[in-house]
Design brief:
CATH class of one domain: Alpha Beta
Number of helices: 2
Number of strands: 5
Radius of gyration: 21 Å
CATH topology of one domain: Ribosomal Protein L9, domain 1
Shape: rod-shaped
Order of helices and strands: EEHEHEE
Distance between the termini: 36 Å
Helix content: 10-25%
Strand order of the largest sheet: 2-1-3
Largest sheet: 3 strands, antiparallel
């Protein structure tokens, strides 16, 4: 699998579209001059949703506990 990004707009593809496709298909598309190879990290940034960390502070007596919520582990 390779990651490619469109560098020319066509009727079916908008400029800047990022796709992850099979090696053979990627090679064919890049040879047309309408696509270029990009690093997988760039594809990950676009394809994955970013979540915000929510920190709740609970006070019990003299203790302060932090409760984290989100995709990360609860501490």
């Amino acid at each position: 699998m390779k990651c490619i990004k469109s560098i020319k707009e066509t009727k079916t593809v908008k400029l800047g579209t990022i796709q992850r496709v099979a090696d053979k298909d990627a090679d064919v598309r890049v040879k047309t001059g309408e696509w270029k190879f990009i690093p997988k990290s760039e594809w990950k940034e676009v394809s994955r949703k970013k979540t915000e960390k929510v920190v709740t502070v609970a006070v019990e007596g003299d203790e302060v506990k932090k409760i984290r919520r989100g995709k990360n582990k609860t501490n």
